[in-house]
Amino acid sequence: MSNYQFKIEEIIDQIRSTEAKIVGLQFPEGLKIHATDLAREIEEQTDSLVVISGDPCYGACDLSDKEMEGLADLLIHFGHTPLPIDQKIPTIFVEAHYQLESLKILEKALELLKGKKDIGLVTTTQHLHLLEDAAHLLEEKGKKVIMKAGTGTLKGQVLGCNFSAVQDLPVDAFLYLGSGNFHPLGIKLSTKKTVIIADPYLNQVRDIDEFADRILRIRFARITRASEAEKFGILISSKEGQSRWELAKNLKNMISEGGKEAYLILLDEINPPSLMPFMNLDAFVVTACPRIAVDDSKMYEKPLLTPQELEIVLGMRDWEDYEMDEIKY
Length: 329
Ligand code: SF4
Fold this sequence. Notes:
Layout lengths: L3 E2 L2 H11 L3 E5 L8 H11 L3 E4 L12 H4 L5 E5 L12 E4 L2 E2 L5 H7 L7 E6 L7 H10 L3 E3 L26 E5 L4 H10 L2 E6 L4 E4 L1 H18 L4 E7 L7 H13 L3 E7 L4 H4 L7 E4 L3 H6 L8 E2 L1 H7 L16
Parallel strand pairs: 2-3, 2-4, 4-5, 7-8, 7-9, 9-10, 12-13, 12-14, 14-15
Antiparallel strand pairs: 1-6, 10-11
Helix pairs in contact: 7-11
The structure holds iron/sulfur cluster.
């Protein structure tokens, strides 16, 4: 049985009201396992035919509207809240809420927050519905909870690579409710404050510091190696929500002004095989999803840099001013 709540009745009502004949469904990888069950329910309860997007989906930045255009009348995108980008077909965003049996994990996290009074509480879309109860629990234990909405995000929400809800928040530490290290790492690098993870999936609490140190050491090694590069590839995404064309052109100019060569390369999927034909280049700069350079770096033979890391390579930024890359909409 799934711990995710998809609000199927609301989805059915919306499909009926749009009278869509063909409905596209799109899920991030972790939710795709529910795709056929939802497709069956929709086909049984409406007159619509359902087509499931089978391609990888990395975030709300990666809508399959372009692929579904001309095929589906309506796209239902699960698991993310919308980003301010145009959609080629009508799209409904469905937040998949993860049901937790209890918030006991927060009590465990309090042990790592001793001496910290003002706490920034943060989570991702699937746990947003728990934030109010979580804040209440922390306040009962004597903490002051401070949250704010970001640019294009809700109160206490980190969405993809958008960390604006934590920036400039006057807190002693952050408490992140959720799984994975990418978001807590982003919070740490954006704010330089203590970040404690309360992971309800692993039933574990941990400080992000050790992981952040390890990642920074790897990033330093990549930057050092790229400092010897003479030829750079600048990778641009053809996904609308990940496309930073102006940035890519600026980076090419920066590299050229430094007396080195740079080539603009447009790709839909960035992965090691897609870079194989470009092994004559010494390093790559990713203007697409910021996670590619940071999460997947070990998979690549040549160094992959974020735009901020390129600035360090070119001597335009100090290592002490290292920043996580973010796509700002
Ligand atoms: S570009 Fe940002 S929002 Fe999109 S997948 Fe990457 S990290 Fe997530």
